[in-house]
Amino acid sequence: MAEELKKQHYNEDDIAILHGLEGVQKRPAMYIGSTGQSGLHHLVWEIVDNAVDEALNGFGTTIEVTIHKDGSVSVQDDGRGIPTGIHKEAKIPAVELIFTTLHSGGKFSNKAYTTSAGMHGVGASVTNALSDFVDVTIWREGKIHHIRFEDGGKVKVPLEIIGNTNKHGTLVTFKPSASIFTSVDFKWQTIFDHLQESAYLLRKIKFVLKDERTNISQTFYYENGIQQFVEDLNENKNTLDKPLYMQDEIDQIKVEIAMQYCYNDYNETIYSYVNNIRTVDGGTHETGFRTGLTRAVNDFAEANNLIRGKNKLEGSDIREGLTAIISLRIPENMTEFEGQTKGKLGTPQVLNVVSNFIYNKFTYYLAENKEFSINLIKKCQDAQNARVAARKAKEEARASKSKKAEVIITDKLTPAQSKDYAKNELFIVEGESAGGTARNGRDRIHQAVLPLRGKPLNTDSTTIAKMLENKEFATIINAIGAGYGQAFDISEAKYGKVIIMTDADTDGAHIQTLLLTFFYNFMRSLITSGHVYVAVPPLYRVSKEVSKTKEVYEYAWNDKDLIEAKKKIGPGYKISRFKGLGEMNAQQLKETTMDPNKRQLIQINIDNPFLAEKRISTLMGKDTALRRKWVEENVDFSTEDNFLKEQIHGEKKE
Known about the structure:
alpha+beta; Heat Shock Protein 90; Rossmann fold; 3 domains; eight-stranded mixed sheet; 38% helix
């Protein structure tokens, strides 16, 4: 091998130059994150962002997205229309430059846009590079302009004038390349969610979504913007007061915040946005919000003798049960995102701007609304007491290792032997019978088994005290070892994977949903950090004896797999249908559902936090009329419908 390497030449002839959009086609994930579903839809977001930029800056009131039958998508706005004149430096029409050249466009000049969602100026050109065709129609200055690109960004029809008009705006139609993406099937719900979110952030701007494949459409329009966003998020919750809405412009930065507190909610729900882009990884604006909020509440409580000295509230106490939307408009020359996908804001001066903003506004609100303020401080103190009690209990358990704590854990849990927690897996198994089988089939070094006795409690809208009275959840909390609620610390979790393993029937699906509701309400970061999985046991085993001592067999996870399995085994096969985990022996359970080299797992994540919150509160909440209404409108009982895969979404892994 060493000799072969020595023979390889490396000189100036090995240096490749990628021209135009070739770099995007060569490494698409660098620009859109992946070539899967998220990357596919990112193409839509880039074109929608351009339309949003017009609306953000006061040009246009309607944005329309259409999914066509041929797999293409159109985005139309009534903004000013992309410029069509010849660019002085490039000597080509401006629209052609924008769609064929990276880092070109009006986003780099304060003359065209004061704030912009498409900050890096690569959106239109990246979409063009990764599409079979892009067709652009522009209504501008009394003329209808048209240009078409094909085969990854090559000009097929040069810019032309095809008529007269008194309209203004831009229509972009594109079809992603099937040779680049793993799937080119656009999802209605994904685009629906994105446009609804944008409509909340851009109040009084209409978003229209149409799907020609199914002849359905939806219009989004919100007069009260993010204030209505918060109202809708907390629609089925017991709230302290109506949503508080605040806005101001400080040092050219426009700040909007809507917030509301809820009883019996033990999480903080904060969504932050910059120029209409959700900053999923937070940044300086979220840090500033948390800092200013903590200071405002503590200063008010101290000034009114509601807390003293060492009893100061921590930020987590103050944010328990809080829902907040933070939306900023920042000039292009001040905006610093970390990464092309713009998931985290890095602009330093934003921290103090937002911190001072929320401190001043919320301090004034607390002073003017004493009843609310006293209720809020009481709620924060309850959270503080619960946090201190949980920490004290954890410290006592570590120090004494009391028999009581040991009984709770060892009564049901068969632990893993390894102390390398990141590699350990906790299987939460439906039933004692399957639990016993799993114990015999597990890898004793890294796999722990915790069988459930019956169905767990529905923890939506329940109190912490009632949740802790449930033996199943008390055992899960002790087994994972990282606390619960605001005190949950994922760094202390004893398992890198928590795997829910239930029967493949309606009871099993119900148990999955109850457990996921528990994790969502009391250990949410376990889900958002990618530690929660659902095991996928097979439905069938296809076998055939080839001799008295030997048989060949294949497993099938669905009817399609069953057809393939029967082909592989050949004539004379026998089919076994697994009605539950208990029908498998230890070896079968190991090789199909527990062995990391052979099993199938679904990793649980939250694609859309807003919709996940709405679905859980609707389907798991106390309002039976609301739940019945949703089921009647959304569930077709003639087909399979899996709530778990809808918004607390799973991707198959391994």
